[in-house]
Amino acid sequence: MANIRVLPLTAVLLLIAHLAEAQNVTLPAIERVVLANGAVLILNEKHDVPMIGLEAVLRGGGVADPPDKRGLASLFAALIAKGAGDRDAAAFAEAIDSVGGILSASAEQESISISGEFLSRDADLMVELLADMLQRPVLDRDELSKIRERKINTLLSAKDSDPGKLLPIYGSAFLFGEHPYGNSVGGSESSLADITHADVRNYYERQVGSDRLIIVLSGDFDAAEMQAKLDAAFRDWRPATGEFAEIEVPVAAPGGRVLLVDKPGAAQTYFWLGSIGVARSYEHRPDLDLANTVFGGRFTSMLNTALRIESGLTYGARSLLGRLSVSGSIAIYSFTETASTTDAIDMALSLLAQLHDSGINDETLSSARNYVLGQFPMAFETASQLAGVFASLEANDLERSYIDDYGTALTDADVASIATVIDDVYPHEQDLVFVVLGDADAIRETVSKYGEVTELSITVPHFRP
Predict the structure, then answer these.
(1) In DSSP terms, which residues pair with 320 in a beta bridge?
(2) In angstroms, what is the C-alpha Rg of the chain?
(3) Nearest alpha-carbon partner for 352 in 318, 310, 308
(4) What pLDDT digit, counting tens, does each position of 289-304 carry?
(5) How would you classify the pairing of strands 328-337 and 268-276?
(6) Is residue 173 left, alpha or beta, with left meaning phi > 0 and alpha meaning psi from -120 to 50?
(7) Is the CB of residue 54 less than 8 Å from the CB of residue 126?
(8) pTM score, two decimals?
(9) Beta carbons of 110 and 325 less than 8 angstroms apart
(10) CATH assignment of 31-234?
(11) 257-457 in CATH: which number?
């Protein structure tokens, strides 16, 4: 048998780290043009395959919803793909499908995005469809009714059979209160039901226009020719008539409060323990990503190892970083059998305290760094992915160093720098709000030890108590 040399663990980790460093990402060159009407065009030539990835972003999104019309941006985004220009919903879908293209729209908290992918030979059709969606949407009344009904039924179905999907919505509503970040982008049963066709048309006139628009294309095209096509298609579009929604930094919510969402007879309890987090532009993002990977961002994290692998209290536990333009949330999420509700929550809180008290050691840091470095390059492989990255950077006023310097910053992170970030970002138990969804009669008394309890029935057609 041949001799096999077994390397010490430290040597293996150093070798993996060296290989991971070689996978650092540097963004390709772009052409950036601002039209006279304020629209921003970003073009990245990528000729490896005959495809074009599209990402168009309208700044605004759910934060621009009127207080009594939550979900309006989401309804509008769904509706602009249901007929535009001279095409009704069926003809619009057929135009995309006939060339094997992809084109869809969705609303987020601070933007509406249109994502697409087309063969390069169909670039003219892609530009035509995008221009029609934005400048000449049909906004059909019947299609709106169908979409609204489907969204309401989706919420009702989740409350009935998969309430865990809704827990982050309840969590944000309880944590942020009346701040725009506390509003559900998708709306609630009650807010969706109140949105009229006139509301959608008014949203379009006031919140959608050239001054909010970013168009990013990455793929197989000539940049000068594509710029001319986009300029011709969008240079005469009008700006939005309404004021842009400026977002204030949310005030830290008082901890030690419990929202108990009652689902009678539930066999499981879902819990979300959250606090105010940091913005997308947070200076020490790489250190925070490493800390979160260790704490609750992968299968072998502290949370999942303790709550799932070792104790069997759940099928999964994780920590969530919701990073938005001015702040965001940081939360622990899991679920367990009703009888073990406080056992699971207490274990999660104990691990949070351990994270603060002990931090992470060099071996765990090395493992987390290799994991993140291994995952990071896979987000920049296709034209569509690159289009999305450039659109996000532009929409959030971030420099390309946000990506280009990330790998180096991960390599430079050490136990001390991560400990500083843990103290800076991760809440202590007294800073947390607790959102618990389950059978209130079975868990009301036990969860009261975490703070003052506010109850909300899951049948109530909104998410804020």
Answers:
(1) 331
(2) 24
(3) 318
(4) 999 999 999 999 999 9
(5) antiparallel
(6) alpha
(7) yes
(8) 0.91
(9) yes
(10) 3.30.830.10
(11) 3.30.830.10
